[in-house]
Every structure is written in C-alpha cells, then in structure tokens.
Design brief:
Layout: H1 2-11, E1 13-24, E2 29-40, H2 43-57, E3 64-76, H3 88-107
Antiparallel strand pairs: 1-2, 1-3
Length: 122
C-alpha cells in the first residue's frame, strides 16, 4: 500500500478513488471501489481507505491467493486544491513522508520500513 502512495507521489498524481480486487483459490474474484473524500497521494489517506475496503470484504476463511490495490480516477497533483488544516499531527506526518521519500530516492526503496521488519544487530 505504501508503494502505491509512493508511486503516485513520484508520478505527480493523486487518486480520487481506490479499487481493491481479491482473488480466491477457487478462481472467483471480488472487486470493490471506494471513492476518497478528497484526492490524495498520502500514505495515511490511502491506508485508511484500504482498511475500509478490506473490512467491507468481510473475509472469514476464504483462501486468498491474490490482492490488488489500484488508484483510480487520477489527477495531476498540482490540480488538487490543498486545504489549510489545523491538524499539526497530520502536517508532521506529511513532512516526515516527504523526508522518507528523499531518503528512498537517495539510498533505495527498501532502506526505510517498519522497525519490526529489521533484524536485530548483535
């Protein structure tokens, strides 16, 4: 999911909607689109919409063999109006997101990730 947001930012695009497609072992598929409240290219916005789509799928015991998340109804990022927000925590995450993108551009896409994914140094 983070890769979708990163790809959108690198292309200078923002998604107005997401579509989740699930493929099951029996050959059946399930697809559900979700319109975003506003066009976005940010990790937190896309992650929240993705989680809503996964909840809507209501997976119980289905044998899932494939999962695809697509950004749809794309806009150029410069066409997206930016609202002034008073949420300082969100603004701090957006600044951190830009810094993370710069580090990934310089050192590679896998240099930054969740702390639990890194091995302990001994």
């Amino acid at each position: 999911m983070v890769r979708l947001a990163l790809l959108l930012r690198r292309r200078g695009q923002a998604a107005r909607a997401l579509a989740l497609t699930l493929r099951f072992a029996g050959g059946s598929t399930w697809e559900k689109p979700r319109r975003l409240a506003e066009p976005s290219q940010h990790d937190d916005d896309l992650r929240a919409a993705d989680y809503q789509l996964m909840d809507a799928a209501g997976l119980q015991r289905g044998r899932l063999i494939g999962l695809t998340l697509k950004g749809e109804d794309l806009l150029d990022a410069d066409q997206v109006a930016q609202q002034i927000r008073l949420d300082t925590a969100r603004e701090a995450r957006l600044v951190a997101e830009a810094a993370i993108d710069r580090v990934r551009d310089k050192f590679g896409p896998d240099v930054i990730g969740p702390a639990a994914a890194f091995r302990h140094a001994s």
